């Protein structure tokens, strides 16, 4: 028993010290002392498939088969490429209102026609953070800017209160403030066209997102987003995940301006009507 207890303490010490919060003196900082988030970052999770915990499955688009669900005709030829990896999720069960839960299931069943990602629409916040593409933070004492590889999306964060958003938009209006070493962004003025993931999780134009960026290690940010939307959810809820710095010497965001990739999907029927 004594040996087991000593072994447990040794393992606990190694684990706890290697996973401890960032030493405030060890994180990169700007000349004004605030944390410096400049760099290329990316998540390592399956949240873009489904932000809730989920098992692996054969495809996002399914149809009923004689012995269970099968990939739909439109995606069956993708085989394993179109399959879905399992994920532990970045939130618990989402507190939908009853009508909204039915809407989510309807969205999921009509994923090919409804997911805005398929048509290369801007991803919105927070989805832009955990899509399978890197993004870059460009920061100074006077500015804070996000550049996303997916669809060339960008987000400028106001550092003084801009007042209400003049119009709803895909990426919303971002206003950032410091709470100690945590950078907090309030995202308002969101339209109702974006989804949280490929599983039909959605929101209305009443969406309010509070993001929190906190260093846990010089190369790791803990990201939290609190979602409030009284039209769709019964209460505010939260997602959280780690964001990792891309450390390779050639780390950069490249171009993925996918609008031209979906022209045939969106406009091909017009061309074919005149052939």
The CATH architecture designation of the largest domain is Beta Barrel
Ends distance: 81 Å
Q: What kind of assembly state do the chains in view correspond to? A: single chain
| Major β-sheet annotation | 9 strands, mixed, barrel
Order of helices and strands: HEEEHHHEEEEEEEEH
Query: Which bin fits the share of residues in helices?
Result: 10-25%
Number of DSSP helices?
Answer: 5
Total tally of structural domains: 2
Short synopsis of the structure:
The protein has 275 residues and is an alpha+beta fold. The protein has helices at residues 2-18, 98-109, 111-114, 127-130, 263-272; strands at residues 39-43, 62-65, 68-71, 135-139, 144-148, 154-158, 173-179, 182-188, 208-217, 220-228, 237-245.
Can you walk me through this structure?
The chain is α+β, with helices and mostly antiparallel strands and 275 residues long. The chain is built from five helices and eleven strands; from the N terminus they run αβββαααββββββββα. The longest helix is centred in the first third of the chain and has 17 residues, at 2-18. The strands form two sheets. A nine-stranded mixed barrel has the order 1-4-5-6-7-8-9-10-11. Strands 2-3 form a two-stranded antiparallel sheet.
